[in-house]
Amino acid sequence: GNSVTQMEGPVTLSEEAFLTINCTYTATGYPSLFWYVQYPGEGLQLLLKATKADDKGSNKGFEATYRKETTSFHLEKGSVQVSDSAVYFCALSDNWETSYDKVIFGPGTSLSVIP
Amino acid sequence: DGGITQSPKYLFRKEGQNVTLSCEQNLNHDAMYWYRQDPGQGLRLIYYSQIVNDFQKGDIAEGYSVSREKKESFPLTVTSAQKNPTAFYLCASSIRQGAYEQYFGPGTRLTVT
User: Fold this and answer.
1) Chain mean pLDDT for chain A
2) Could you tell me the CA-to-CA distances from B101 to A13, A44, A49, B27, B98 in Å, in that order?
3) Collapsing DSSP states into helix, strand and coil, what is residue A83?
4) pLDDT (tens digit, 9 = 90+) per residue, A67-98?
5) Which of A114, B64, B91, B100 would you call most buried, defined as having the most Cβ atoms within 10 angstroms of its Cβ?
6) What is the pLDDT of residue A93?
7) Do the Cβ atoms of A102 and B58 come closer than 8 Å?
8) Beta carbons of A51 and B48 less than 8 Å apart
């Protein structure tokens, strides 16, 4: 079945440091890939997404590229801020209309950015 | 503003009582979902609904029940049969079921003692 693996953290970085959170997936079909962010005490928000191989999703300085050859969707940001402190979830969604699969979320990676 | 509301934000119950968590959306989405989140863990799917009057069990449906009588509403009942009900519960919706963005509510933190 489909699955998502991501580095579990916690990750602690200094402000303006470079961020990478690794995410790899296993899928039988042609999934769409997502990164969601959860700030303390809140629900999840979509950060970015990519729907096919080689697509790059980007938002708020974050980027991730859908790499089918390495089955990866790593999240990157060039210069993190204290306000980026949150939990980041990698997720995979296959085409339910045909496969009746479901959205698979990774375990989340907690990021703390210190001034 | 369009979005998903969950109420209440915090809920406290005694063991053995059933409790219903509210979820309402005004996004005109067909699909709705309930997830459970435990500390340091990812999301686990409890139930989902593709359309009014239809819903399916997720990975951890035991001890929970839902209804979908209106498109906008998808309440979750945590029954006394749920062995470990204390958790953070998240409701979400998407335009329809499939590889679409899910929109999440702010969550309800349920504590059962």
Assistant:
1) 91
2) 29, 11, 8, 12, 9
3) helix
4) 999 999 999 999 999 999 999 999 998 765 44
5) B91
6) 87
7) yes
8) no
Q: Does B54 lie at the interface with A, CB-CB under 8 angstroms?
A: no
Return the residue of A nearest to B38 by Cα.
A107
Alpha helices in chain B (DSSP H): none
> Confidence class of residue B1 from pLDDT cuts 50, 70 and 90?
low
- The answer to whether A107 and B42 have CB atoms below 8 angstroms apart is yes
Per-residue confidence (pLDDT) for residue B26, from 0 to 100: 96
Report in angstroms the alpha-carbon separations of A10 from A21, A75, A94, A109.
11, 15, 28, 6
- Contacts B48 to A, Cβ<8 Å: 102
Q: Do B97 and A42 touch (CB under 8 A)?
A: no
Interface check for B5 against chain A (CB to CB < 8 A): the answer is no
> Which residue reads 């958790």 in tokens?
B87
- Which of A45, A95, A108 is nearest residue B99 as measured by Cβ atoms? A95
Put simply, the answer to whether A93 touches B45 (Cβ < 8 Å) is: no
User: Which chain B residues are closer than 8 Å to A43 by Cβ?
Assistant: 4, 6, 90, 92, 104-107
Note the pLDDT of residue A99.
45
